[in-house]
Amino acid sequence: MSAGQLEPGQPLPPMRELAVELGVNPNTVAAAYRTLRERGVIETAGRRGSRVRARPATTGREHARVVVPEGVRDVADGNPDPALLPSLAKAFAAAGEQGDRNPVLYGDEAVEPELARIARAWLDADGVADGPLAVASGSLDAIERVLVAHLKPGDAVAVEDPGWGSLLDLIPAFGLRMVPVGVDDEGPRPDDVRRALDSGVRALIVTDRMQNPTGAVVSATRARALRSLLREHTEILLIEDDHGHGIVDVPVHPLAGVCHRWAFVRSVAKAYGPDLRLAVLTGDELTVDRVRGRQRLGPGWVSRLVQRAVVRLWTDGAHDPAAVAATYGERRDLLLRALAERGVEAHGRSGLNVWIPVPDETGAVAQLMHAGWAVAPGARFRTSSPPGIRITTATLTEEEAGPLAAAVATALGPGPARSYV
């Protein structure tokens, strides 16, 4: 496969057939297929057999980045605005002084008590079901640990489509099968969720708000519909990602507590800084206990120095989440209005990004690059949904919104309205 002799999506021969052809024991071929599946090189779909993945799960994220030439405006990276991130110097200085007075030693608690207290209070205020807390190194680390705690290779996971590219790579890397669930502005579509649940998926992953890449928000009405479906399938693992907490100006409508096994994840990356690498995880007792137990066998814990710095950032009053959310909302709405004025369909109810359905991703990305705008191709966020492009509006200025919208309209050309669902 690495030599290029097998193409992405190409089916592999049945194990017994290949064993005969190679003159080896079928168990040897089965072990080889299992290794390739666990490494995310191939995927298996029951009786339909195995095939080469469309893209290797072990491909580094840097290989998916858009190369931005000099003089081209980068609106593809998905990063928050550095100017809206709080200063870390005082927070870490205070955390360091606290560490000098009260050093963390082996055997100490993994979770900073004050961080747990504040996080739990916020979760309670948002109606998230009660449960023990753990701390992971970001949202993806938390989701990975929850999946590994309950699932095995070959299990199916329902994922949003379009959805978070890193998650779409992570799942098959563990030999898990993805079942795509369509998304509209109110979150996962109930009919698609029902089909996925009825097909026997073992887990469902939902982004409550600030969905990447579409900006979708699970509304109160959609949350009720999804809870109703989940009550018929309480045996599945439910994972909710609320990575927009702290910079989103819309309420969260959690689903947690409906299923026996569940996890709710909040990171600080977008609001306080991507390099902090910290996410709070709550869930049912068994899930959190398994996550903590596996964590103890590896890194042990997320640095209490980082946890104490985050507590300082949460409590020192220097960061105004409402003001930051309003600023991001204004910048996003600038582009949405400019696109609407030019007849371009676009989506972005929350967060830092706008999703635009396009008939041809490659052509749209190339034309926009030629016009001086680097946008993210939708392929990194999709499995089977229609093509699109993602534009990050985190640093977009009022002067840029009009020219960018005009360039998008020109790149798309005349045509009927398109939809990402």
Explain what the structure shows:
- This protein has helices at residues 15-22, 26-38, 89-101, 113-125, 139-150, 165-173, 190-198, 220-230, 269-272, 285-297, 304-315, 321-341, 361-370, 398-412, and strands at residues 42-44, 50-52, 73-74, 133-136, 156-161, 177-184, 187-188, 203-207, 237-241, 261-267, 279-283, 353-357, 373-374, 376-377, 388-392.
- The chain has 421 residues and is of the alpha/beta class.
- It folds into three domains: 1-56, Arc Repressor Mutant, subunit A (Orthogonal Bundle); 65-85 and 320-412, Aspartate Aminotransferase, domain 1 (Alpha-Beta Complex), CATH 3.90.1150; 89-315, Type I PLP-dependent aspartate aminotransferase-like (Major domain) (Aspartate Aminotransferase, domain 2, 3-Layer(aba) Sandwich).
- Helix 8 links the parallel strand 8 and strand 9.
- Helix 3 crosses helix 11.
- The chain is globular, with a radius of gyration of 22 Å.
